[in-house]
Amino acid sequence: MALAYQLGLKRSVASAGGHASIRHLHSLPSYYGAYAALWCGLPALLVLGFWTAFEGNIVTSVLIGYLPEAVQQTDPQRLNLILNDIKNLAGGNIVSANVDPAMQQAAASYQDLLSISAAAKTVVVLALGILGTLWAWKRISPKFRARNAVEKTVNIFLIVCSSIAILTTLGIVLSVLFESIRFFGKVPFMDFVFGLEWSPQTSIRADQVGSTGAFGAIPLFAGTLLIALIAMIVAVPIGLMSAIFMAEYAGPKFRAVAKPVLEVLAGVPTVVYGFFAALTVAPLFRDLGDAMGLAVSSESALAAGAVMGIMIIPFISSLSDDVINAVPQSMRDGSYALGATKSETVRRVIIPAALPGIVGGILLAVSRAIGETMIVVMAAGLSANLTANPLEAVTTVTVQIVTLLVGDQEFDSAKTLAAFALGLMLFVVTLVLNIIALRVVRKYREQYE
Amino acid sequence: MEQTMNMSKTTAEPAFDVNSSALADRRVDGTVGKIRVDNPRMSTTDVDVYYGDKHAIQNVSLDIGQNEVVAMIGPSGCGKSTFLRCLNRMNDTVAGCKVTGTLLLDKEDIYDPKIDVVPLRVRVGMVFQKPNPFPKSIYENVAYGPRIHGLITSNADLDEIVETSLKKAGLWEEVKDRMDQPGTGLSGGQQQRLCIARTIAVSPEVILMDEPCSALDPIATAKIEELIDELREQFTIAIVTHSMQQAARVSQRTAYFHLGKLVEVGETNQIFTAPKHKLTEDYITGRFG
């Protein structure tokens, strides 16, 4: 490709009649180089990609043709086993069945096929590269619009990249949606959304002792909201106050040190917060409760919520700090010029002006709190209590998804599928919150522009 | 060749210096014209302002008289806005800004450590270059000042202050039916008059205006100028402007600033018809600036 680039570049310069008359070219010489390089590389890479992707299937189907009639007639699963044996034999690995001459032969032909394919691949790719370069070489002339062609290619590349992210999201949403629909085929939608009891254990065999399973999501969402609420009670005042201090009162030196330190909080892995919550904070709360004569469970919503609140502080403080700084200096000047003090200005002008942005930040933090898993897994417990008492153990949607899918699972029981339904509900809730947050933030932006 | 050039340079230099505006500037020790008035509201003596190492204003002495409009003109960066912002200590919010000299408001030193800047700014209000209404309703914008200073005891009082302030600012007729709409939704000229109403609402003694019309169209500008003329009866006004026509129209006295110095000050008529200083003459006739 580098060679093709040089060729294209030289060719364009030559076709223009030397370096002195480059301006007769439609585009800069480097664009002609890039054009040639693209023609050299892209078709060859595409073919290489497809070849590698489909090589296995094609070789296998050809191999099946080589096998004896009797083997070809067996059922697909058995055939697969035999094919695997052949491939292992060819690769020199351990084989399950006894090796008979027919298999030896098949293995040998499999190896042949593979080497032929590899050789053909090399030849085709090289040929395409050279052909592409030649094609580009032929097209390069002073009037040829190389820049437009190159930019169009880059454009397409960018579109492909961005659609990968979008398609992946779409795929995830659809798969969760379809699994949820399967789940709702087993458990009625209303029972799930409004059921008050959560106990996903179902018996696998009819004669087994065990619960029949109850899939009421209310206790989970109640637990989630309880913990998120505690987290917000901790995070919003602290985050907001620290943002106001950072933005309005702190000197530049203090700010330069304190802001990054605060943002380090956001970089601490949630697992670390989790064991901090489970090993330090939860026992602390329990001991405190004992001292005051309160029965605090050693896995309490309070501990999980408090630690989650600390985790969220940097979100709120950093976002609020940004919106407070975005309030134009002229607002402050206007207020000071009317004889307002600093605190009056902050309270009556800056906070109201920044409020939509602050609310947006808080909503983003809430959806983060709802989606948080690790801290609650470790500190809040697993029992699905429907309670508003923060001193008891509760469980959240994310924790239940984890416990439903961890370990050996069958993939078509209501228990496993419930995880998808929970995921879908959670996704909808956080999506709605995010949409509201983005709306609010956008409305705020329009105010000064 | 080179030698002759050098020679001509050395011989030419003194003559060049004598006529250059730079030297003329250096020769001026102090200010041409009448810096004092009989009934000063604000009086400044030997004011120097530094932004860090930069000496932004040098040795400015100027009186602003009772019920008069003083216009400050001069090329960009000459320090006229800086001087204006000294008069109600708005420069306090600028990091690294240092002000020396004497600045008196009714014979009180406003940079005295005993003086609280908050009541000072109530007495010396300011209107900015760009209209900066708060993102609140029109009513709340005007009510802001009286509210924070506890000037009112009842809602009826507040309504009255808001109404009279808006009337004085010539905005009442246009906004009386939509007092609860955001102030940011008004047109530029209306916003600026809202800002003036906001300033009037706390009944200041002096109003400082920093290029109040530079962001406005000619019609809005004319309205503001008319307003300034009316406000003069009640307030003392100092206005910074880039428009010499505006200075001529609204002010009684005009001060010409150049490179951080107050070059000339005098009756507006005299400044624009018979400037005494060469720099002033050059500026108002458009020879530089």
SS strand fraction of chain B: 15-25%
Query: How would you sum up the global shape of chain A?
Result: flat
Largest sheet of chain B: 7 strands, mixed
Mean pLDDT of chain B comes to 83
User: How are the strands of the biggest sheet of chain A laid out side by side?
Assistant: 1-2
Compute the average pLDDT of chain A.
81
Q: What is the top-level CATH class of the largest domain in chain A?
A: Mainly Alpha
Description:
The complex is a heterodimer of chains A (449) and B (289). With 449 residues, chain A is mainly α. Chain A folds into two domains: 2-144, no CATH class; 214-446, MetI-like (MetI-like fold, Orthogonal Bundle). Chain A contains 16 helices and two strands. By secondary structure, chain B is α/β, with parallel strands linked by helices. Chain B has one domain (29-284): P-loop containing nucleotide triphosphate hydrolases (Rossmann fold, 3-Layer(aba) Sandwich). In chain B, the strands form two sheets. A seven-stranded mixed β-sheet of chain B has the order 1-11-10-4-9-8-7, sandwiched between helices. The longest helix of chain B is centred in the first third of the chain and has 18 residues, at 2-19. The radius of gyration of chain B is 21 Å and the shape is globular. Chain B starts with a helix and ends in a 5-residue tail after the last helix. Mean pLDDT of chain B is 83; it is low at 1-28.
